[in-house]
Design goal:
disordered C terminus, eight-stranded antiparallel β-sheet, mainly beta, globular
Amino acid sequence: MRLLARVRSAGERAPSADPQGLLAHYAGQLDGDGVRDAGPLQRHGQLVGLGQAVEVAELDVLRSVGPGAVVWDEKPDLLELPPVTTDFTGGIAVEAWIRPRTAVEPLLFALGGPDFFNVRLRSGDGTLIVEFAAKTGAAVIKVPGVVRADEWQHLCVSVDGGGMCRVFVDGRAVHEQQVAPPAVARDGVRTGGTIGKEFLGELAELRVWQGGRSLEDVRALWLRRARGDEPSLVCCYHLDSLAEGWAIDAGPRRQHARPMGRLTWGDGDGLPLRALHDTRRVHVRAAGKLLLDELPVSLFPTTTIEVGLGAWGTSVSRCRRRRSTGRSRARWSAARCTRSRSSRARPAAASSRARSRSASTRR
């Protein structure tokens, strides 16, 4: 179920990551008694009453064909990052799934400004190069033989507040080196940066963390998509698609990156991650209702649009306006309308008897 604050055209592609109109996207993902919002605003719902995730074979049409990844086909392709104000003096970690092609020292990730933090690849001999402005000058770490061309691999570079640099590949620690701690950003800002400068290949699930990462931290998430609300998460680019000219940051700061060049997105063939949306063939079967945030009435059109649901019947949404702190708001309640295949196959007489019994019970 998606809730948008705008009109959607019939030919529009999946709006699940649209930063301009998507208010909520409930894809059937339960977390205890909470229902996760997979949209950019993270308006997680609360399930009241009994509920469970149920396998539904006929929802195969909703499943993504692949986990998705952004493809770099030309050297001018890159993602441009906005300025970053996060304090990294306590450490920084960058991780991503990559499938590089042959290139000469592409810049996988860079935070700009004089107090830089760069991660480079050298595909010829498989060297990973980390260079950053430290408190006592520039630090450079080179780890040969860890980057494999034309293969999906998970890389994580972590520098903690004490200057210990650790490199993890596919959930294994491959290098550890003591260097100086990262420098304090001048004026508290690192002026932008880039992802994938002169890189050729595919990238997915690039995440930036405040503070270093341990081996246990890396192993807990390297085969999973991040939700976006994990502690210490600064940026999270799923890179499973590009939404209206942006690479969406699912992290708490909403630092969306601007694609430059001719970046495209593919199905991420061979990437050992689940698709971000509709990863399971499920819907939420609830004996109660899903409570959502109160949303300002101004977000919605003033005209009423009646939507026919064909064989599924008619669904009516109710909007109650009330005064709250001087502003008019609307409380929205989402009701479900389902009909299983088994119920459709029942004879008309049986259906009539069921409706009669239901009416008697209400009386």
